[in-house]
Fold this protein.
Amino acid sequence: MDMVKNEWKKLFKNKILLLSFVVILFIPLLYASFFLKSVWDPYGKTGDLPVAVVNNDKSVDYNGQTMDVGDQLVTKLKSNKELDWNFLSKEDAEQGLKDGKYYMIVTIPKDFSKNAASVLDKDPKKMELSYKTNGSLNYLGQVVSEQGAKQLKSEVSAEVTKSYAEAIFDKIKESGEGFAQAADGSGKIKDGLVKSQEGNKTISTNLKTLADSSLTFKDGANTLEVGLKTYTDGVNTAAAGGDKLNAGVSTLAAGVGPLKDGVAALDGGATKLASGVSTYTSGVDTLAGGINQAYTGSTALSDGLNKMNGSVPTLASGITQLNNGQKSLATGLDSLVDGSNKLSAGLKELDGNLTDKQGKIAQLKQGMNDLQQGIDQLNKSVNGEDAALAKQLAALQKSLSDLQNGLTFIKSNANFDAEAIKSKINATAGVSAEDKQKIMDAIQADLDKETQKSATQVATVEQLQSGLSGLDLAAIQTQVTELQTGVAKISAGYQTVHGGTNEAFNSIHQAINGSGSQTLLGGANQLTAGLKSAQAGNAKLVAGTNQLNSQVPTLTSGVGQLAAGSASMENGLSQLNDGGNQLASNSGALRSGATELQGGTNQLAAKVPTLAGGVNQLQAGSSQLAGGLNQLSANSPKLVSGVGQLADGSSKIADGSSKLANGSFQLGDGLTKLTDGSTELTDKLADGAQQVKDTKATDKTFNMIASPTKLAHNEYTHVSNYGHALAPYVLSLALYVGALVFNFIMPIRRVSMEGQPAYKWWLSKLSLGFVAAVAMALLEGGIMIALGLRPDNIVEFFGTAIITALAYMFLIMLLAMTFDNPGRFIAMVLLIVQLAGSGGTFPMPLTGWFFNLIHPFLPMTYSIYAFRESLAAGMGPNVYSMSMLVLTIIMIACIGLLYLSMSHLKKRHDAHESALDDNQKLMALEN
């Protein structure tokens, strides 16, 4: 302890050193107090920071009110104490900023209010509030100015938004009145829609009725068009027939006189006709036998062809049978030719007696043909044959392909014109209507019916050979139906005339038959020529059969097709055989008819006067009929055209009315929805109007809209001002500087007594440093509290200051004692490093990676943590305890290392001179 006492005694004896010691104790206090008080509360004195304001704004009209945002802003700034606002011209403000008089210039442009009023324009423009700063004058001043400018922007935005809100609420008030009016109008619309809906229901019902009626009208118009087409066709046909009838009646009237003279000659010719008919019927019997033999041969041929499929010899046998059948056919044809020749001879004899009457009889025949075609043939034949013709057409369509091969044979062997014979017999004069009908029945039911079928089949074969596809049976059926309708109309038109002249017609029929000998003669000649053609065809068939017999090997491959054709031929010959048999069986009726024809000529002579009178009446009526029919036919096109237009119009009416009815129903649905929507709209508009009416906007409302948010700051810990925030860093830094100055000034390497052990030297310097460090901490802490520093925990505050001072003191003393001046330099370098790496000013995340790396290893880091906890209690007790522990460890470690260093120096008696002055000479005695 002696050396410790002596250390202090020497200190008090050396007045300069003692004064230095005392001054060193106040260095931390001076450093901390001056630095902290200079920046104690800079943000609390921003009202002293001069800022220039230049107002160039021009007021504008907005919704009938004057908007002068610039002037309003200036007025607000005059009462704002956040900054020292100075309102200047642009030139003065620029000069003041240049001279450093102002830290910022805030410029309000001339279109500031104008842009504020453009919020509802198509292209609104933002309000531009510009500011200009001079950071070189003072960066912190620039930062403060910028914060003021941002706050100014917020205030302007709030003020303008308030103006917008006032204008909007004015409009809302006006719109509320509009809503009420709209609600009233919507109610009226709803009432109108209800009435419209009721009217639409009536319209829809009537339109539906119209649409149904239009469809009925359309169908009737179409039916009328079809019926009228048939009617006009019938009228045209009737007009043509009327013209022919008129011409025929005139011819008939001219031939009545000569008819009377030829009746007697007709009577004699009828006798010869009966004889010729007998000869003709004999030939018919022969023809029937030949056809029967041909049918038998055809059957054998068909059987032979079927057998030929398996055996050629069987085919040869069938051909032989076919040859035999053809011979029989030839014999029958010869007999038929003889009978036909006899018939021609008888007719020639009859014709010789009527040579002088031929011209007049021909005129009478022409008129009768026209009359017969106009009435009997069209009315009886068409109506009587229509059903049979329909059946024949159906059967014909089914068997076309089969008849093609089978009827070829008939065509080549029976090519006589039976239809021509029928026409000639119909035109034969001298036979009564009753007798003529019997002849017609006998010939038409037998010869003509079957021969007509054969002739029709032959003609069909010719048509099929030129192209089967050209036959349109459906079209034929349609034409027959139309012909039937037309004939019915002609018959109705002729009813009056026919009723008055019926008796005359009977007489005409009887008279007409008187000229039939010449017609029969022509028919007989045609029959003979046809039979001869059949003979020639049969001869060719025989030759072809012989050729077939010689070419049996070649025909073997086509036997199947020939068998099918033979079957078709057999079918055709079967029909022809049946017709021949019927013709033969009815020959007696033909002979009987010829006999009756002879008797009818006698009656004809008695009826001629009556005929003459009837013909005169008929001539007059036919002239009137022809004129009326021609006039009716001339007007038919107009009628057809009008009906066509009527059909088209009815179709359009039907379509349009249907669409209109559908649209009306859709309109009804839409009106229902519209009525419901209108009701809802009325209610909602009324509610909206009431809500707008109930909305009361006040200044609080406008302020709420202008500034709807409020920033609430909750402090975890309270730091009063910038001085309190910076105090932990400055206090710690000041103690380090004090310790550094102490180890620079005080002669720590010198001893107060010689011959003392090292630990006494260590204790003497330790006591000196301990007292100095504690004194620095207490003085700094106490005076700073007196100057306004308010620690949260005063015990922790002073404890931190003392431990920090001791840790710094012995750390620097260790460096200075061990390394002398180089050690002191290291202590200064450590000070510089701690200034940047301890995190005393800015948060460590804002600094570089190097400083974050060294931050945990710096003593000042933990001193600042401990001071912050003692001042604001924000770091937590754990951080404080850890920091105090680290500082204590540093202090104890430095004290221990200091003892080791001093012991080493004592042993080595290090006599090197100090680099500072003699006061630092190691081991030198103190004066």
Notes: The longest strand covers residues 50-55. The chain has a mean pLDDT of 69.
